Automatic annotation (TrEMBL):
It comes from the Bacteria. Keywords: Signal. It comes from Amycolatopsis ultiminotia. This is Lipoprotein. Residues 1-23 form the signal peptide.
Amino acid sequence: MRARWTAVAAVLLGGLLAGCQVAVDGSAGLSAADRQTAHQRAAQQAAVDAALQALEQAPALQYDTSVKDASGKPADLAFRVTRGGDGLGALPLEGHTVHLAEPAGQLYLSADADYWKSHGLEENSAQFGTGWVQTVGSELPMDPAARLAPPKLADGLRKSLAAQNQGGPPQKQRLADGTEVYELGGGLGALQVTTAEPHRVVSFAPALLDPRGGPKLGAGFRVRPLSVAELKQFHTDFDATVGGLGQPFDGLAQASVTVLNDKLDCKDYVGSCQTTVDVENNVVGSRPGSKPTVHITLTVEISADTLGAQTCSTQGDAAADSTISMSCSVNFSLPNRTASYQVLAKPTAVGEVRAPLDVNAVKAKLATTFAALGG
């Protein structure tokens, strides 16, 4: 009885061992190729993390891109921005070269008349094309302060990469200067990060930040942090630009003006006629809390029988939704005889809404900002 029991136990044990053998045979580990790919992807991820961290901590960045000018020749554009969003330079917006200044949270643009026409501002395009226009970032395809400041850019690129499926081995490219880079991004465009330490972001496609608005800024930007000397020059250039903004147009508001109380006064025996009018303005579309002014141009055509017609003009500034008095005069050459003349005055006025700008206050804020950044 004991021998039979031992034999049966041996058979059962053999069956159990056979079952374990089947389970082992059914499980497979990573292949050598898979392990190599995983190692390469881990190295790429470490490089991207380090590059984005360095980008995030930069005091200021410079973006460079190339476009074609009106004659088809390549032209280089540069835009600089601090970590707080104070930006200065030029960007290719929707095929137009647009100069931007964004100090202390206020955005100013300078572009030709065609740019403003493309935005439906046909009536104001000629005026806007002659100077700086204040607007808001939401009017642009992508707000530079909200998307291109160092912390904002790093955050936007992280989110874009996290939403993409980066499968397979890392893609590498060698740039014209010999620098080897990882290339990520997929269909939205490339993000290039150096493979060698210290890892840094070399370039990126704006579409990575915003698939809809980003492509309107072109295919890609080269990006780099500013040195201390470049940061100081950035501050100097910013002060000069702010000092030259003048009286910027308000790109969001419109003014209607009405001429009231036309009064004509002609001096006997002198030939001088002066027209005095009240000009009332009404402003719509201004930002809450802003105090725009209306720059008014008064033009008066004064005519007299047999003496012909002459035109005079004058300009003045009025607070929004107010009335001011304006005058201009002409001089007729009177013949050497006694006569009387019927004189007629035709005044017309136009108004442009101008954004208030305290240059000294803006420069003081910039000084504080750059001092904290080391520039």
